[in-house]
């Protein structure tokens, strides 16, 4: 069952007179009920630009975002306000979304108070319930965010996102700033909460190993284009796009991150301002053919749940 769907989503930013930067180029993605869609790509590839459409923080230049069949890019006023309960977001840096002057219980219960789902007198008990849900001690309710660790703060952010019982939660690099062991605990918690509450998740991350672990489906983004989509458990064995393969190979090169790895295939990342006319990856691809420079490859389905945009297929 498709809960959320992006159709032909394009976002251009005007950077000078008659000069446009294409941050998202004709993106088509589906989010299935209770499943995790992982979106992976290098920083600056347009992942966050895209995720902002899902939580109504920006609208695309072209295309639709359908939530249960309704185009949410057209919602305004009270309708938009009410819709926001359905799709919540957890950011990389909780400090940017937490007020330092608010106690943990106020941070967790703020959305519930805004939507009048609880009374002031219920704040303490409600906050305790949510802290238990994210496996934090109840006595944190009266503390301030600065006294919590990074991992604890992300648990509070998750508690707050859960409080409105959203159907969808978007995690934007939500574990990227954490130590590896803390990251693993948070990922396990997210998986557990997802199972218990049948939540649909969008998990965006630059770390392809983590994406392979958490995502049911993985979409690979390069310069604002989705170049390959496939099941998470097939990522290491079945990925076929030259860019996806370069990302995967980079995991095994200890001490080399994947942008270095790809730069070692070829020169520089092209700027989004002069994305090649044909395949966005043609300047860096070691399999490049004549047609790649002239024609943008369209997405083709090569097996169940596996789509690829590359002239080799
Ligand atoms: Fe490489 Fe051509 Fe495929 Fe692009 S379309 S990834 S340039 S082979
Ligand atoms: Mg980002």
From TrEMBL:
GO terms for molecular function: ATP binding; ATP hydrolysis activity. One of its GO terms (biological process) is peptide transport. InterPro entries: AAA+_ATPase, ABC_transp_ATP-bind, ABC_transporter-like_ATP-bd, ABC_transporter-like_CS, Oligopep_ABC_C, P-loop_NTPase. It comes from the Bacteria. Keywords: ATP-binding, Nucleotide-binding, Transport. Residues 4-248 form the ABC transporter domain. The keyword Transit peptide does not apply. The keyword Transport applies. Pfam families: ABC_tran (PF00005), oligo_HPY (PF08352). Belongs to the ABC transporter superfamily. PANTHER family: ABC TRANSPORTER, ATP-BINDING PROTEIN, TRANSPORT ATP-BINDING PROTEIN. This is Oligopeptide/dipeptide ABC transporter, ATP-binding protein, C-terminal domain-containing protein. It comes from Acetitomaculum ruminis DSM 5522. The lineage of its organism: Bacteria, Bacillati, Bacillota, Clostridia, Lachnospirales.
């Amino acid at each position: 069952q498709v809960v959320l769907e992006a159709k032909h989503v394009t976002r251009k930013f005007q950077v000078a007179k008659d000069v446009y930067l294409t941050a998202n180029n004709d993106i088509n993605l589906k989010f299935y009920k209770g499943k995790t869609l992982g979106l992976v790509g290098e920083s600056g590839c347009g992942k966050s630009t895209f995720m902002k459409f899902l939580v109504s923080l920006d609208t695309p230049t072209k295309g639709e975002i359908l939530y249960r069949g309704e185009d949410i890019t057209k919602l305004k006023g009270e309708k938009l306000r009410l819709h926001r309960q359905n799709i919540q977001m957890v950011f990389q840096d909780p400090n940017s979304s937490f007020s330092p002057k608010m106690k943990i219980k106020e941070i967790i219960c703020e959305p519930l108070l805004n939507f009048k789902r609880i009374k002031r007198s219920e704040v303490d008990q409600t906050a305790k319930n949510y802290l238990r849900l994210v496996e934090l001690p109840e006595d944190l309710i009266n503390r301030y965010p600065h006294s919590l660790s990074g991992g604890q703060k992300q648990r509070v952010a998750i508690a707050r996102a859960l409080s409105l019982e959203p159907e969808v939660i978007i995690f934007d690099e939500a574990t990227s700033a954490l130590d590896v062991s803390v990251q693993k605990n948070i990922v396990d918690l997210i998986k557990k909460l997802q199972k218990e509450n049948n939540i649909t998740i969008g998990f965006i991350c630059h770390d392809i190993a983590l994406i392979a672990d958490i995502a049911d489906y993985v979409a690979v983004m390069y310069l604002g284009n989705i170049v390959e989509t496939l099941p998470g458990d097939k990522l290491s064995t079945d990925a076929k796009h030259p860019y996806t393969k370069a990302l995967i190979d980079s995991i095994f090169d200890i001490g080399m991150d994947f942008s270095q790895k790809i730069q070692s295939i070829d020169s520089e990342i092209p700027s989004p301002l002069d994305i090649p006319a044909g395949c966005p990856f043609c300047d860096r691809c070691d399999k490049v053919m004549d047609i790649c420079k002239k024609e943008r490859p369209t997405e083709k389905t090569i097996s169940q749940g596996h789509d690829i945009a590359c002239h080799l297929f």
